[in-house]
Amino acid sequence: MVEKNRDVAAAADREIVVGRVLDVQRELVFEAWTNAESVAQWWGPNGFTNTIQEMDVRPGGVWRHVLHSPDGVDYSNKSIFTEVVSPQRLAYRHCGPEEGRGLLFDATVDFAEQGAGTEITMRMLFRSTADRDFLVNEFAGIDAANQTLERLAQYLANK
Question: Is the pTM for the entire model greater than 0.70?
């Protein structure tokens, strides 16, 4: 038991966890995360837009997209889905624009029923504390993740 607790504590400095409760049924929230047309409407921090190039939501499937920043910088992204359990969980490995290039992290998004709504918990586990800190410091990663969930909430409120 002590070893497991030590592993969890060791991971804490490599992890970002954000969450939100939405007054929307879990199936609709899951659909918004897995439909390319929907994702293009809300993914990313405030002011960003998306071009979804590919979104094959199945284990081993690839998700490629470009985040367009308000200042005109494009950020190419590639992720590979590792787990898809509708409507409970999505997991993917973010590997940058190409395998081996860019910031590598494993993301898990859990969708739990919360009364008539849905509690979303998004976890990103990085290879190192330095990688986590780079995302936090260079890209305001925690704020960006929370803004992304807020944009999802706004998108679903308008559906």
Answer: yes
